[in-house]
Amino acid sequence: MLTRLWTNLSGRIGGPMSFRIVMQPSMAILLAFLAGRADAKAGRPPYLWGIFTHPSQRRQMLREGWKGTANVFIVAVVIDAVYQFVELGWFYPGEALIVAFTLACVPYALVRGPVNRAFRR
Question: Which of 89, 108, 88 is closest to 7 using CA atoms?
Fold first, then answer.
């Protein structure tokens, strides 16, 4: 099962519909930029740092992060489902969730905090 997972995930990089490997993180980064700028204006802590160091705000920050990436995440799942049906002939929901998380949530979480810090200066 892990071998199939790794083979299927690595095949997405150069396979058909590979435009999403660039477009979806780009959209997540744009949304993170806007949210990071808003965080700086509101005086909130940088995103990932705040999640780990401000337990009282953790739930609110995670909820805001999900609201920021939900649409990109859902589009990533749908596009990956289409890819799987076209390329693999089957749908593996776990793989779709891994790909969507990697393409939408990871770039968002990594960019939002540094943007906040940059705008504070």
Answer: 88
